[in-house]
Amino acid sequence: MRIDAHQHFWEYDPVRDSWIDDTMAVLKRDFLPADLEPVLKANRMDGSIAVQAGQSENETSFLLDLAEKNTFIKGVVGWVDLKDHGVDERLAFYSRNPLFRGVRHIVQAEPDEFMLNPDFQRGINYLRSFGLTYDILVYARQLLAAIQLVDRFPDQPFVVDHIAKPEIRNKKMEPWSEHIHEIAGAKNVYCKLSGMVTEADWNNWKEQDIIPYMDVVFNAFGPDRIMFGSDWPVCNPAGTFKEVIGIVEKYCTQYDDSIRAGIFAGNAIKFYKLDIG
After folding, report:
1. In angstroms, rounded to a whole number, what is the distance separating the alpha carbons of residues 41 and 38?
2. Which of 214, 179, 181, 178 is nearest to 196 (CA)?
3. Handedness of CA 70, 27, 208, 180 (dihedral sign)
4. Residue 277 pLDDT > 80
5. pLDDT for 134-176, tens place per residue?
6. How many Å apart are CA 222 and CA 228, to the nearest integer?
7. Domains of the chain (ranges plus CATH)?
8. Backbone angle region of 231, left / alpha / beta, with phi > 0 → left and psi within -120 to 50 → alpha
9. What pTM was computed for the model?
């Protein structure tokens, strides 16, 4: 069993998806399960986790509908308004669907202190009672706020997306490395080896540019709290699925089969509590 712990689908909308600028023109089209399934098969992957790319409940319902119709989608990380005072009712509604496994907010687009907002944290506080995880999507500079968030919720499962987006293209390690070690000190926090090529120089990155950042992540979290994610199709302007997974596969040859099985499936299954049949 091999699972891509982080990928996206969308029916392209130029207004909603205005984050897709002209430098990412290859993303200005629909990306649906029929596009991903052959890519997964070609790379010996058995399933995926579909993660929200839009800030609406329509997005959550869209992803859950795709997951119900495509058995290779093993779980959905959707969106609800965690700051809304009726968020518990919305979480209860979506949690009736066993494929709804977690929530994410695009915090990288918010002010750096967004996660410290009392209303947002009140929403986070509801997740555990519904057995839901939270994906932390931040830039490296926002890790300090993320550290404060996870410290406040020691029993809530969190996962850091895209290794918190360090400045790989500028070969900048600090203070990202220090903060990654700090957030990894909370044992309820996992990390996704995803989104790395998009933080590198899209046209000129080399494997050697990314290895030092993976070294930091493995040193901080250990292999039992790390999971592979392709970030397909967002990775496409910088690298193919095959190139993205190839970097991680080659790096993980230093580990035995059981550890690799965790990184490429087991850790995601455990974290998201997937029912893989």
Report:
1. 5
2. 214
3. negative
4. no
5. 999 999 999 999 999 999 999 999 999 999 999 999 999 999 9
6. 13
7. 3-272 (3.20.20.140)
8. left
9. 0.97
Angle in degrees, 0-180, between the axes of helices 33-42 and 241-251, rounded to the nearest 10 = 40
Going by their DSSP bridges, the two strands 47-51 and 73-78 should be labelled as: parallel
Write 107-112 long-range contacts (CB < 8 A, 24+). Answer: 107/136, 107/137, 107/138, 107/142, 108/137, 108/138, 108/139, 108/142, 108/165, 109/19, 112/141, 112/142, 112/144, 112/145
The length of the chain, given as a count of residues = 277
User: Token pair for residue 243?
Assistant: 């190139």
Both tokens assigned to 123: 């929403």
Q: What is the DSSP letter of 28?
A: S
Sheet of strand 158-160: strand arrangement:
3-7, 47-51, 73-78, 100-105, 133-136, 158-160, 189-193, 226-228
